Structure formats: structure tokens, C-alpha cells
Amino acid sequence: MPPASSFASAIAPLTDEPARTALLFDVDGTLAPIVRDPQTSSVPELTRRLLIDSQMIYGLIGCVSGRQAKEARRIVGIGSIPYSGNHGLELLPRGAHEPTVNAEAEAWTDRVHAAALEAFPELREESGLRIEDKGPIVALHWRGLDDEAAAEAVAEQIAEQAASAPGGYAEAFREILWRRADGAVATKTILAYRGGFDGDLSQPSQHEVAEAAVQWRAAGGVRLTDRVLLRFGIHEALRLGKPLQFHVGLGDRDCDLHRTNPMLLLDFLRHSGQTPVVLLHCYPYEREAGYLASAFNNVYLDTGLSINHLGARAGAFIARTLELAPFRKILYSSDAFGPPELHYLGATLWRDGIASALADFVDQGQWSTQDATRIATLIGRDNARRLYQLSE
Question: Looking at CB atoms within 10 Å, which of 51, 188, 201, 390 has the fewest?
């Protein structure tokens, strides 16, 4: 190991200009310890936190792995960074559903499969060799068991240990979240209905999560109001890298309106990294939401159900959202919960409201008609397509 002074001098070009620095990490053996069963590999919680914090400092944080890119992302547990998988043949951008595969390598997939199955059957049967199918790559692993009964016994033992381990709730939550979010474009929290935004929203420790989970289960495991578990869920959603929506402002009787002011999210947003955070509905805090959208690169404002509730006054609400929020960070949605007619009502009220607000700018000579049309198209369609990575 070189002296500390020599090491500091060696990495000085990286630390002197962090905004221009890219840090790319191998997964197995670097971020995650080598384990006998590769399927149980995981990145320690402290390492995960350091990676998340590093996103706020360096220009690019990413991972490279011989594993498939989606598998590498599952192990690292952070969706807001890119992954290069399959020894460079796959690229999984931040928050993407599927990786891009090198076309030339993909063309060899069938021939590689045929060669592996034809060349190694006896060796595989005699030694317990395991073949891992990674598309254009077929990997051969000596780790594993060739006895099904023994494999089943080991699997049961692992399950028993996981059930009794302090981090059982956390691991189960992560697995369910990642599985269900695989086909989703965003996640949403209703923290506004479970105590609001005031108070500590920092990431809890594994020990805190385990203790809170025991208490919640002991109480019946029903309506979740435990602050520790709610905080844990929000930070796990951030790691997916997909937009995280917050219900903000008006709601039903479960919502304490004064605790849903988005300014109470300031500390949380300062540590939210690059994952997009969408403030939904927002009334009567649309101006506060607009300020946050202008102050934080990853914060967006969605007018949501406020349009339907405000009716004929929706135009004034829409005009207020245009005061501070960047036009590329304002989104329309109808939040048409209930009768399908609310989809129509929300769309009609928004179209009338945005037309009135933008026409006023044009009439005063501040905007051109082309400007107004461009902004209306951004808010009504293009911003959502870009944010949620929606196809045409």
C-alpha cells in the first residue's frame, strides 16, 4: 500500500475537479464481497450510502460488471446510476427498464448457446458445473451443487436464516419493490397521509428498520404509520432511479394540510441525489412547489387533482405554477380517480386554464404565439414523455 501522501497525489486530478470526474466501480469483489453463491451477493449498506453521497460530488458514478446489467443493478441496489454489464456488452442507463445490448455481440447469441450446450454436457454432469446464460455470453461456474436434495436443504437453511436475521424486513421490501417497479415508470409515496413531511426524513439505519419492523408486525402489520419504516421506503424508492412522486397539499380527511407544505422536504431534497422528485397536486402550496422546482435540478411540479377541485378557478392556479417553476419541469395530469368523466373534466379545465394564462402573455406582447404553443406542448405532453421515458 503506497504512503498516504503518494496516494493523495495520485488521485489529486480526480479530487481537484470532481465535476469532471467519473468513478466506475466493479461490483463483485469490489463493492460486494465474494460469496459462494453468486445469487446471494449484495452490497453492504454503508457502501451503498457512500455511492449515493458520491453522486452529489462527482460528475459520474457508475458500475461495470461481468454480470448482466440488470443483475448488477439489483445487487448494488441503486437505480440512479448507470451500469455497464456483460463485460461491456450491455449498457443500462440511469432509471432505464432494459439495457442496450451491443448489436454485433447479440448476433452471436444462438451460436454461443449451441457451442456451450454441445461442448460441455459431460463436464457439467460430472462436476456439478453450472452454466449461466447471459445472452451473448455463456458463463461456466464451479460454485454450486449438483445434488438437488442437498441444494434444497441449503436453500431452506438460507431461508430460515433470512427470516431470523435483523435485516429480514429490509431485504424482503427491496426484493418486492424492485420486482414490482420493473414495469413501472415511477413510484409514489403518500407520506402526506401518514404524518406529513415535518420531522426527520433521513435514511434510517438497518438496526432501526429491523426494530421498527418487529414492532409493526407485533401490532398486526396493518396500516403503516411507523416513521422509521416510512423513511426507509422513501429512500429505497430513491435508489430505483425512477421518478418518485410525493402527494403534496390538499387531500382527504387523513391529510393534515399544514404538514404537507413541500418546503418541509428541503433537507430530504438536499440529499436526494439525481433521482427525479415530482410534487403532485400542490394546492395551496403551488408557489412553494414552483420555488423548489427552480432551486433543485431534480424537482418537478405536477398540477394533478388540483385542477378538478378548483374548477372555474383552475386558470388562476395554473398561472401561479408558471411564476417560478421552469417550463420544462411543469407537468399536466388529470389524477382522474373515480368516474371516467373526471379524465375529460381534468383535461378540459387544464386546456382552458393554460390557454387563458398563455393568451394573456401573448396579448401583452410578452410572448409570441409560437412561444405559447411550445410551452403548452411541453407541459401538456413532452415533459411527461421525457421524465417518465414514455414512447411516442
Answer: 390
Please provide the size of the chain in residues.
Answer: 392
Q: What is the three-class DSSP state of 300?
A: strand
Burial class (CB in 10 A: 0-12, 13-18, 19+), 302: buried
Give the C-alpha separation, 120 to 304, whole Å. Answer: 58
Q: Is the distance from CB of 388 to CB of 243 less than 8 angstroms?
A: yes
Out of 3.40.1190.10, 3.40.50.720, 3.40.50.1000, 3.40.47.10, the CATH code matching 4-101 is 3.40.50.1000
Would the CA dihedral through 86, 90, 92, 96 be positive or negative? negative
Evaluate if pTM is beyond 0.85: no
Enumerate the domain spans of the chain: 4-101, 104-163, 165-387
CATH code given to domain 165-387: 3.20.20.140
User: What is each CA distance from 178 to 99, 274, 279, 314, 378, in whole angstroms?
Assistant: 16, 18, 22, 37, 30
The string of pLDDT tens digits covering residues 93-119 is 988 888 998 888 877 777 676 655 554
List pLDDT tens digits, range 219-269.
776 778 889 989 998 999 998 899 999 999 998 887 889 999 999 999 999
User: What is the C-alpha separation between 244 and 184, in angstroms, rounded?
Assistant: 11
Terminal-residue alpha carbon distance, the chain: 54
What angle is formed at CA 152 by the lines to CA 149 and CA 157, rounded to 5 degrees?
Answer: 130
Number of neighbouring beta carbons within 10 Å of residue 379: 26
Q: Is 100 strand, coil or helix? A: strand
Q: 64 pairs with which residues across the strands? A: 26, 84
For 209, phi and psi rounded to 5 degrees? -65, -45
pLDDT digits (tens, 9 = 90+) for 176-231: 788 778 888 999 988 998 889 999 999 998 889 888 888 887 777 677 888 998 99
**28 phi and psi, to 5 degrees?**
-70, 125
Residue pair 116/141 in contact by the 8 Å Cβ criterion: no
Question: Which residues lie across from 28 on neighbouring strands?
Answer: 32
Q: Give the Cα separation of 104 and 26 in Å (integer).
A: 24
